Amino acid sequence: MDFKRIEIIFLCAFLTLNIFLLTTFKQGNGKDAQRQMNSQSTIESRLKKDKITYQQDFSERKHGGYYLSGETTYFKKDNETLDVKVGESGPGKLPVSDDPKKDIEIFLKNNNRVTNFEDYQYYLKAASTPERKIMAQGFEEVPFFDETAMLEMEVTEADKSYHSFGKFTQSHIDNIEPLREKQEAVSEKEAIETLYIANKIPYEGKIKETLLGYSKIFTVRGKNVYIPTWFVWLEDEKKNSRVERVNAFANTVFTANISDVKESE
After folding, report:
1. Ordered domains of the chain (ranges, CATH)
2. pTM for this predicted structure
3. Statement: residue 208 has pLDDT above 80
């Protein structure tokens, strides 16, 4: 790829990113009045009034993060090129401990079927289930929670003493780098307030889990662009679950679909 082509790619990424920032800035301004109207009461008291339960106090810690770019890793299978690899983890049993992350890391080190296994450093507890364990890539202690950078492993528990891993699904990104300087992200508490104001938390519902992670916002010329995002697992009074996302820079609820910026002919 020559220098002019690289220059065009980054120009497209820059323009697309700024359009995204302008949109989220306008959305954020639209919520300012609502925040001021509700400033007299705490989020905890409002949740209690609406009979919304949660497990622990919400953190007010301000995290840092980046706009990141990354390239999809393509796996080879016979004569095919795949962006998602599906395979069998192979035989073997692993004793169960109180640390699922450690269990999986030990298994991966002893199994060569997962490509770049050492890059999956984060166990996504909130997204995992007894039947499915999820590991993810990360950047500076913040995981990716995105279908482009995850390892999902099927688990068969023959009994409570060991795991037997079955099929796995793997996606991976490479050449991860910041597009801008590090910025401050909103706290967990601010993200919950934003969801409450936007009427995204159901009455008599439950806030089950939260996670700060990177999610993809668009793709330009083969490069994915990611942003810090608060993921919040919610459950309504009928036990129906869903996940809401909050832009951790703009403090706005995600509503737009991910877009691809195509290269012109």
Report:
1. 3-67+179-261 (2.40.128.690), 69-176 (3.30.310.160)
2. 0.81
3. yes
